[in-house]
Amino acid sequence: MNPNRLYEMSAEELTQAMLHALTYHYEHALTATIAERNRHLRQARELLVKLHQGLNDNGGIISAQLDELYLYMAKSSLEALIEQDLSKIEELHALATDLDQTWGEAMQRAKLTPQPIGGNRYENYQ
Question: How many beta carbons lie within 10 A of that of residue 73, not counting itself?
């Protein structure tokens, strides 16, 4: 990916790219040597920290649930790194894959949903 492209991405596209990378690192950690597995798990954990930092405090229930999920995955990544636990990495890969797919579906739905232009959508609410 072109480094300049990162600066042109929306927050949603950047999140999607990080989720793709997260899935990639867990997938490759499953079959890598110990040294490479450690590198992939460390990079996955760093991505989770960045995803966690990007959450909006006013994001409601979804933000709160993602907060807990990211923290769980970061903790489990560290445990998998220390214990070299492939079953834990498989679980993390499955979670990352689900997140990636769900985020992609949400982005597609958002593109298909017409957005109100101007004004407050509640301004005529009685």
Answer: 24
Taken in order 94, 100, 104, 105, the sign of the CA dihedral is positive
Architecture of the domain spanning 8-108: Up-down Bundle (1.20)
Domain boundaries, the chain: 8-108
CA dist 20 and 74 (Å) reads: 16
Categorize the per-residue pLDDT at 55 as very low, low, confident or very high, splitting at 50, 70 and 90: confident
38: Cα within 13 Å, side-chain hemisphere: 4
Mean pLDDT, residues 107-115: 78
Query: ∠ CA 28-31-33 to the nearest 5 degrees?
Result: 100
Rounded Cα–Cα distance for residues 80 and 40 (Å): 11
